[in-house]
Write a structure and sequence with these properties.
Elements lengths: L2 H4 L9 H7 L4 H7 L9 H10 L2 H8 L3 H11 L33 E5 L1 H5 L5 H9 L6 E6 L4 H8 L4 E8 L2 E7 L2 H4 L23 E5 L7 H11 L6 E6 L6 H7 L2 E6 L6 E7 L2
Parallel strand pairs: 1-2, 5-6
Antiparallel strand pairs: 2-4, 3-4, 6-8, 7-8
Length: 279
Amino acid sequence: MAEATRQIPVTPLDTVSDVLSRDESLVEVLVQFAPHFAKLRNRALRRVMARLVTIEQAARIANVPADRLVRRLNEALGLSTEIADAVPETPAPARDRAGQPVAHPTSAPIVELDVREDLRAGREPFSRIMSAVGGLCTNEVLLLRTIFEPAPLFGVLAKRGFASESHADAPDDWSSWFWRPESQASEPPAAESAAISADDALVAPDESTIVLDVRGLEPPEPLMRTLAALETLPDGYVLQHVNTRVPQLLFPFLAERGFACEVDESRGHVVTVRIWRAR
């Protein structure tokens, strides 16, 4: 690893993958804070967990202050930069109109999705999760079973109008509930900026091309939506992923799933990636 890379301070918004790429031994710092992170020694599991979890979210999983974890990682790199002020505020838990903490509705129908074995095997389950979310009726609750708290999902699904709650049944066994609050469940869903669409500059060239515009979305949602769309891509169809940058993180997932792609950066302000099933 280049020495210049080691001199880049760790911040709360860095992904665990980015941090470990600077020095793989930093996994031991994470393990010191929470034995649960010993799973990151497994390269297959690291492919799933490390790419999508930020250091701030890892601190939440470990139940330690984010600035403390960041400072310890920087010390392990031989850096002493003070970046505690850069730690983003943890969103306050949702509360109802009476000011009481939100708890998932116990009388609502439950749709359970268990991805624990996927995670243990190093398989990426987010496309399955997003497919389950997309299939929920307005009054249903998704119960997601994972081996760690799925912190990245909370913010992503909050933007879709979902409240969330999580509970550790064991250090490597988590239950998380996602549901639409009554005030939003009674309203028709608003149009989403990343819905499959084609604007004047990005018209699908033919009927066998589906356009997915993910511009303006924060990671990891562009990745998750693309993988979810590929789950249901008909044979012989092409998914045209529209972005403002080349989605480097997406390419390993495409290769693992047997998809080929080509990137077009000719428009300058927009990048398109054509994705199809390799024969």
